[in-house]
Amino acid sequence: MNIHERQQDGQPPQTQKNQPGVESKMDPAPVHPVDYKGADKLKGKVALITGGDSGIGKAVAIAFAAEGANLVINYLDEDEDANETKQLVEERGGKVLLVKGDVSQENFCKELIDKTVEEFGGLDILVNNAAKQFPQKSLEDISAEQWDITYKTNIYPVFYLSKFALPHLKQGSSIITTTSVTTYLGNEELIDYASTKGAIVGFTRSLAQNVASKGIRVNMVAPGPIWTPLIPATFDKEHVKEFGVDTPLGRPGQPRDLVGAYVLLASEDGAYMTGQCIHVNGGMWMSS
């Protein structure tokens, strides 16, 4: 079964206890770009990816390595997933540094940038990808604590890491942030999550204008329903079972589906793109 036919009837009902989830516990496993053939589009570049142990971040790390980049992969506490990603990167010739820690903390974000520069002598590509979500049936069910956690995880690190990265970026460098289809379509159960992703859109477009004269590009990717560990770690079994099947393309997206957008925005192929968003959502807008 190829990627276009996969999971058109959904997936087995399943949940996981803690975010951002563990990939090895998913059934079926997400599809990653292990078949990706690079063309040296990122040869000699240094890329930092948050949430790079699994899901979209893992797929991007594999593709970047195949294109010749060296990687710093940040993750929260999923050691097994992170070490598997490290192995896949190294198999493609990339050097990789794993840095475990919570990007919601400003001091850690500075440490993460400093470790990247210390390890590889610079930084060319920053991918702000880490995120959390907590579905709730009503706005009244969203506590102030949940609101704070969602914002501190999803938007604060975008500010922190971009700020600390800027002194090290130069002409041709790229910042790429993961937003979401939810900020464009809305989602009745993800009010706080969707609003953080909307904040990312405003931040990205504004920062792109602010640093354009330096030749630094700032763009974003807006995934639709993608089969990553975050899904069984946040939704109930029935939602997971039907996840992604109602898109016009009839299936959830796979991490593999995203890598072309990130490689484009990171490389010279996207040299005339800044302040832009690439939507990879299975055609959801067509049905809205």
Q: How would you briefly describe this protein structure?
A:
This protein is of the alpha/beta class. Helices cover about 35% and strands about 10% of the residues.
- Pattern of helices and strands: EHEHEHEHHEHHEHHHE
Tally of individual helices: 10
Strands in their spatial order, largest beta sheet: 3-2-1-4-5-6-7
Low-confidence stretches: none
> What share of the residues lie within helices?
25-40%
Structural class: alpha/beta
| Total strand segments | 7
Work out the strand percent: 5-15%
Mean pLDDT, all residues:
96
Query: How would a crystallographer describe the biggest sheet?
Result: 7 strands, parallel
Shape, per Cα inertia axes: globular
User: How far apart, in Å, are the first and last alpha carbons?
Assistant: 29 Å
Rg computed from alpha carbons, rounded to a whole number of angstroms: 18 Å
Reconstruct the topology from this structure.
Elements: E1 46-50, H1 55-66, E2 70-75, H2 79-91, E3 96-100, H3 106-120, E4 125-128, H4 144-154, H5 156-165, E5 174-178, H6 182-185, H7 191-211, E6 217-223, H8 230-234, H9 237-242, H10 259-266, E7 277-280
Parallel strand pairs: 1-2, 1-4, 2-3, 4-5, 5-6, 6-7
Helix pairs in contact: 1-2, 3-5, 4-7
